[in-house]
Design a protein that fits this description.
By secondary structure, the protein is of the alpha+beta class. 42% of the residues lie in helices and 20% in strands. A four-stranded antiparallel sheet has the order 3-2-1-4. The longest helix is centred in the N-terminal third of the chain and has 27 residues.
Length: 114
């Protein structure tokens, strides 16, 4: 290839890169800009924090369901089958297990999936 071809391809590459850069800038500026890496903070207390966070884990038809602390609102239906558990563990799950926070919930569900 001769010198003119290299210059031509280099020019096309630089122009293409410039167009892509400008389009990227325009797309990035469409979102709300963060000035000086500062973000707005909500100073009002969260109304949901006053509510109890706990969860109930209960078995229905050999499948584990997760309820909010009110025992009526279903949060999740898991694919965990309890047919392999002992009878005492099944009886406990039929009555329901109360877990105080999401960390305990995840630990319990992880222990029963393995």
């Amino acid at each position: 290839m001769n010198k003119r071809a290299y210059i031509f391809y280099l020019t096309i590459f630089i122009i293409g890169f410039g167009i892509a850069y400008v389009c990227g800038l325009k797309t990035g500026m469409e979102d709300e800009p963060i000035i000086n890496n500062e973000q707005a903070v909500n100073a009002k207390p969260d109304e949901n924090k006053n509510q109890e966070e706990g969860y109930w884990v209960k078995a229905i038809d050999n499948v584990i369901f997760v309820y909010k602390s009110d025992k009526t609102t279903v949060i999740a239906e898991t694919d965990i089958n309890i047919s392999q558990l002992s009878t005492s563990e099944k009886n406990i799950l039929d009555d329901g297990i109360y877990l105080e926070n999401s960390e305990e919930l995840f630990k319990y569900l992880e222990a029963n999936t393995s």
